[in-house]
Every structure is written in C-alpha cells, then in structure tokens.
Amino acid sequence: MLNSEDYFSPEMTRRYMSASQFKTFETCEARALAILNREYEEDKEVFKEGHYFEACLAGDKDLFLARNPDMVSSRGQTKGDIKSNYRRVDGSVERFAREPVFTDIYCRCEKQAVVIGEIAGVKFKGMIDLLDMETFDAYDIKCVKDFRRVWSDADGAYVKWFFAYGYHYQMAIYRELIRRTYGRAGRMALLAATKEEIPDVGGFVFAEEVLDNAMGIVKEFAPRYDALKRGEAGPSGCGHCDYCKQTKTISEFETVVEYE
User: How far apart are CA 17 and CA 25, in angstroms?
Assistant: First the structure.
C-alpha cells in the first residue's frame, strides 16, 4: 500500500504517474524519461527551497538543516550561516505565517495526504500538502520567485505563473484523485508566498472549467507517457531544454532565408 514513507521510492515512481511527472513529460518527453532512468539529474536547488519552506511551516527547520548540511555556508565570512537563497525563504515563511487565512487553513487540514487512482487507465498518485477532511478542499503550498507572468515556450507568450509551471494540471489531477478516493472534491487552491525582498502572498482558486480543460489534456496524454515509461514508445525531445542541448547532434545545416 502506497504511503508517505515510500511515496518517492524508485519503485513507486515507476508504478505510478504523478502530477510532477506528468508536467515533466509535458515539457519534454526525452528529458522526463532520462530523469526517470537516472540518466539525467535535475537542478535540485529550487526543489530543495520548496521542501525547506514546507519544513519550516511544519516546525521541522532544524531537522531539515541537519539532513541537508550543504544549505549552510562552509567558508568565508558567512561560514556557519544559512546560504542567502534559503534566507530569502525564511522571509517567505515569516510572511506566510502572518497571514490569518493561511494559518487557519494550515491548522485545520490534514498534511501530506496521499491519494491514488486511475485516470484514463493510468495509475496515478498524489501527495496533497493540505486536505480539509470535511469539505475535501485541497491546498498546495508554493514558495515562488514572484507573481509576475512567465514565458511559456508551449504558448509562445508570457502567461500567469501558475499556468507556466503547470499547476493547473497538478490541481486537476488532485481533484480527480480526491473524487476517486473520497467520492467528492471541493475547491482546488494554491497558497503562495514569494521569495522577494519584501515577500508577497496570494491565494489562488482554480475555476472548474480550468480544471476540466486541464483534465482533458491529462486524459489525452497520460496513456502515451505511461507507454514511454514502459518502453513501448520512443520519446520526443523539445529541442531547447538543458537536456536536449546537452544531447543534441547536428545532422544538417539550417538555411537562412530571411531576416526576422
């Protein structure tokens, strides 16, 4: 039975699709498969900042630092101090904790709730930061750079940050898994704080039609990504991510025909 202890194990990562895994495949199939096969390692710094943010909110800051000594400077005048990027996260935590709406939600919800279920014939897993067991509202905690629009290669335009990072897919998947686990689901929302010098906070609820549209895409592509995991199909590369640039080979020259 899947639980929080083995949620991130290689076996469960192979057995189940997750929201984060789906988003990685959606960005670049080749990169996602390379990560799954341990042929390519992602930049862990941003992910660690997010985990540190959650650990601080849970009161586990000292334990997290003890398990991650690389977060502390080991040389120069700052030796023994937390590195600057994590000090910014400390400010985000303090700002988050001063928001009464956030603290009320945080206190009444179950933490790290694990849900599983099938979507389009594919086994999915989810670990929800905060789940209200009375209303089945789900909240994901985010610590982000800022709330400005972010460039999206897929859209060819600047879009709202939660769309650029695929959080609409994540919350659509959570909604479906909550429905399959508990029979119904409430609102799907993000509780976010920024890592700016003066941190900002925001609560963002996804409209049903946004989640419905995202779920349509999940159902369309999840079977293909599952087939890639099983080795039944070959991946396509996006051509511009770091993994694609590292593995790129030139087969022909590009003809320049006009000035753009």
Answer: 10
Report yes or no on 110 lying in a domain.
yes
DSSP-derived secondary structure for 181-200: HHS----EEEEEEE-SSS--
- The answer as to whether 115 is a domain residue is yes
Question: Is 257 part of a structural domain of the chain?
Answer: no
Tell me the HSE value of 163 on the side-chain side, using a 13 A CA sphere.
19
Residue 48 lies inside a defined structural domain of this protein = yes
- Provide the CATH number for the domain around residue 230: 3.90.320.10
**Rounded Cα gap, residues 50 and 53, in angstroms:** 5
Per-residue pLDDT of the chain (260 residues; tens, 9 = 90+): 677 778 989 899 999 999 999 999 999 999 999 999 999 988 778 889 999 999 999 999 999 999 999 898 877 776 778 888 899 999 999 999 999 999 999 999 999 999 999 999 999 999 999 999 999 999 999 999 999 999 988 788 999 999 999 999 999 999 999 999 999 999 999 999 999 999 999 999 999 999 999 999 999 999 999 999 999 999 999 988 999 999 999 989 999 988 76
Q: Which domain holds residue 133?
A: 10-247
What is the number of structural domains in the chain? 1
